Amino acid sequence: MTDKIKLIFCDMDGTLLDGESNLPPDFDEVIGEAIRRGAIFAPASGRQYTALVRQMAAYADDFVFISENGTFAARHDEELFSSEMKKEDVLRILKEGSKIPGAYPVLCGKRMAYVEEGFRPYLREMEKYFTQNRIVPDLEETAAREAVIKVAYCDAERGDAERTIYPELKKLAGPVHVALSSNYWVDLMNPGMNKGVAVKKIQEILGVPPENCAAFGDYLNDLEMLRAVKYGFAMENAHPEVLAAAPYRAEANTAYGVTKKIRELLDEGRI
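-> structure tokens emitted (271 positions)
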């Protein structure tokens, strides 16, 4: 079967993980069988690389990890590619972002995230996505000396980023790419960077064409990823634009739609 699925890309929050941020109960069984059949599983998330590896420690040597919305990818704990931002872009983002009420910035390095003291009350929300983090006195000073691959802004107080902080942050688009990642998060990266770009890089590195790839997603930052594969699955709980764009469907994340669909594909011999 020439279009057999050999590479599976999968968003985490709202897609693979349930409402309590847990993996599906049959994850080990289903993904283990996919691996035994020669498929590669690739979590593709806005989360930090170390956060992904920690949650999936048993598969640290099996998976390809795409983190920070496509700006960093690794396999066997070795970097495959990354996209470091220009210092002047990061400083401009911080300066303009400081004018937006309720927008809390996070500087994202390859393996460490940085916030200022004002974010301390919201560290529990942040630590879901950035397990390796550090409070620093001044983000601008940190940006001047550390490699930054993404700046994330959190609407920690209201959880309504699409209507509160995203419209203002979107005005920074052009020199940087602005992506709405969830109700809480907006990510700013190098222009042209997104999960879809990361997927194409991984396809090239591993020699797997789009027709042999599947992807699962639920939010706007998953659109490019779903378009970069033949089998793009939108979760039933997905954003309306994602549901309109994806050619295939999977049940909601709370019903463990990803592993249900992968199990179906295994049973059908598509993997």
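The mean pLDDT is 94.
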